[in-house]
Specification:
The chain is of the alpha+beta class. The chain is built from three helices and 18 strands. A six-stranded antiparallel sheet has the order 13-18-14-15-16-17. Strands 1, 2, 3, 4 and 5 form a five-stranded mixed sheet that branches.
């Protein structure tokens, strides 16, 4: 029986790791890289660096298209209106070839050849992988995921990630989820309980009040990338039915995602999550930000 989508590498200690599926006769990667000796790499904390094309392919496989966005070709960010058009990854202002994109339409009829190539490769992968592709999941799943400290992996003890610092609640630098962890770091758990208590007493009442101001006061609506979110913004994104009110954001240099602490009005609770910086979101921005 073929395995679901997994992380693959051609060498045990060095090189680039790819994402793909293991078919009965071969391994199939998202970026169409071939090797006769692929091995499954379950641990994200190996010396392998991840293939960027595979990472972009995963975004395209797991993200629904942004509602109302019918733009097929967009110019790269910072280029002129006559620039070559790129095909955007669904739900992101990021092209299949890896360039950040502008929301403006391009007047050029030229299309990016690397984008076309990657789209064709991805389509072939989808046809051959069949039912082994990952399912879409709500954006705030995995909030209590346990992480490994920087430079270590496969530990029994895992850490809880603090969205306000992008570190563990015990201030340990983190590198990746640790799927084999079965016990939570005690300082992380205690500090998380203290933070949750403070949020219930102080942050939740403040955000409930701000929701009313946002809904009934002057505001602007715009589509933009998640990396531009500000505290006090309300945003929606494809694949998730909830409206999210931003409490705080944290960015780490070199990390393509941002940590966001949000208020979920429908559930009347706070949630910590990560979003790719180039994820396309619908933003409602009040002229009055929370104090």
């Amino acid at each position: 029986m073929p395995t679901p989508l997994v992380r693959l590498a051609a060498h045990p200690t060095t090189g680039t790791a790819h994402y793909g599926v293991v078919l009965p006769d071969s391994a199939l990667t998202v970026c169409a890289t071939g090797s006769p000796d692929f091995d499954i790499v379950a641990d994200l904390l190996t010396s392998h660096s991840s293939c960027r094309a595979c990472e972009r392919g995963l975004l395209a496989l797991t993200t629904p298209a942004h509602p109302g966005n019918s733009l097929d070709l967009l110019p790269a960010l910072g280029t002129g209106k006559g620039a070559v058009g790129h095909q955007l990854i669904p739900g992101h202002l990021l092209s299949h070839c890896g360039k950040a994109l502008d929301l403006r339409k391009t007047a050029s009829k030229r299309t990016c050849r690397p984008c076309e190539k990657q789209v064709a490769i991805l389509q072939n992968f989808k046809e051959r992988a069949g039912g082994l592709l990952p399912d879409n999941s709500p954006c705030h799943d995995g909030e209590d995921l346990l992480w490994a400290p920087f430079g270590q992996g496969n530990l029994v003890v895992g850490h809880l990630r603090n969205a306000a610092t992008a570190k563990g609640f015990c201030d340990a630098p983190l590198s990746a989820p640790n799927p084999v962890a079965v016990t939570t770091c005690t300082p992380c758990r205690r500090r998380r309980q203290q933070v949750d208590t403070d949020h219930r007493a102080l942050t939740l009442p403040r955000m409930r009040q701000h929701v009313g101001k946002l809904l009934h006061g002057p505001s602007t609506a715009l589509d933009d990338r998640a990396g531009e979110l500000r505290p006090g913004d309300a945003y929606a994104l494809s694949g998730c039915p909830d409206t999210h009110l931003v409490v705080a954001t944290t960015k780490v240099d070199g990390d393509p995602s941002i940590d966001v602490l949000v208020y979920l009005r429908a559930e009347d609770r706070l949630a910590a999550l990560q979003i790719h910086r180039d994820r396309l979101v619908a933003i409602q921005r009040s002229t009055r930000q929370p104090q």
